[in-house]
Amino acid sequence: MISSLHRPTKAIIDLKAISKNIQTVANHLPDQVKVWAVVKANAYGHGAVAVAHQVESQVDGFCVSNVDEAIELRQARVKKPILVLGVVLPEEVYLAKDYGLTLTIASLEWLHLAKQLGTNLSGITCHIKIDSGMGRIGVRKQTDAETLIAELKEQGVFVEGIFTHFATADEADQRQFEQQLDFFNNLVTSLDHCPPVVHASNSATSIWHADTVFNAVRLGLVIYGLNPSGRTLEMPYHIEPALRLESALVQVKEVPAGTAVGYGGTYHSEQIEWIGTLPIGYADGWTRDMQGFDVLVDGQFCQVVGRVSMDQTTIRLPKEYPLGTKVILIGKSGNQSISATDVAEKRGTINYEVLCLLSDRVPREY
């Protein structure tokens, strides 16, 4: 999807805020802990290349979801280590060698398939994934982890790390978190040859369980200035949201009472009203369920009326405004603000999804 540079809808990213957030979290971690910035999914919608260039000197490496995200960073001359968190099929291992990537190995079955295909694993670096209770990828038994480590070493693989992922570190009920932590801790301490890098801490764990950090952390949403728990847990320190989503009025019209607005005629003006149109819609990630939510115009909340369409959104204005008047969808205007968490609560989802759904059609301005 091409970026729409010639319309007033854009996401403005404060890269310095991301740097500051990393430093803030790092200040609350034990000394000598490695810090990796998670820049998967286009850095949670913020722009992976721009973010990586901004913070590369601050971090020990980066985490991405797949090989293509890693290649994008390498082609942009990012030199720090890159850990691919997802499973890479054996036939694509050569890409890890070509681009100097660190792979996640998550099962004995993967290794057996690689051997069956005759995949040359010699020279790659990997981390072993442990499923401590998330139920996705990873080995569940210490014996499997031991076998995997030993056989990978026989194949000439440098097994640099071992890690897991917590399912409930951002929730008030900590029982599952504690069970996973105990499982993982017992497994790694029982290994005959534990890899040198051990990590289990995502953003939530790094914030609310800093005392459980091993020797590396993976910082995701928190570096972009959002609370990983939404509003469930209070942040112990201030972080600054790095993304502002804005547009502008491209049409303003006065309509009489009873005027239908938008697809399906789901909204009718109750009196004479000023209706403004914004060039943003669900193709941009401003989804249809935002009808009834508010945006900010001139420091005032203005309701989205009528259904959000693919390319346009209509809002009810308190008065006539000139064309080109700025409209804030996420961010601050005057004394008011709308956060990605506010948007998420309207949608019945999480702030992660709100950011990741911002499509490539929305230009990122830094």
TrEMBL record:
EC number(s) per entry: 5.1.1.1
Domain Alanine racemase C-terminal positions: 242-366
One Pfam family, short name: Ala_racemase_C
Binding site for substrate: R136, M310
GO terms for cellular component: cytosol
Superkingdom of origin: Bacteria
UniProt function note: Catalyzes the interconversion of L-alanine and D-alanine. May also act on other amino acids.
Catalyzed reactions: L-alanine = D-alanine
Record InterPro entries: Ala_racemase, Ala_racemase/Decarboxylase_C, Ala_racemase_C, Ala_racemase_N, Ala_racemase_pyridoxalP-BS, PLP-binding_barrel
SMART domains, sorted: Ala_racemase_C
Keyword Isomerase assigned: yes
Protein name per its UniProtKB record: Alanine racemase
Keywords: Isomerase, Pyridoxal phosphate
Species annotation: Streptococcus pluranimalium
Active site, renumbered: K40, Y263
GO molecular function terms noted in the UniProt entry: alanine racemase activity; pyridoxal phosphate binding
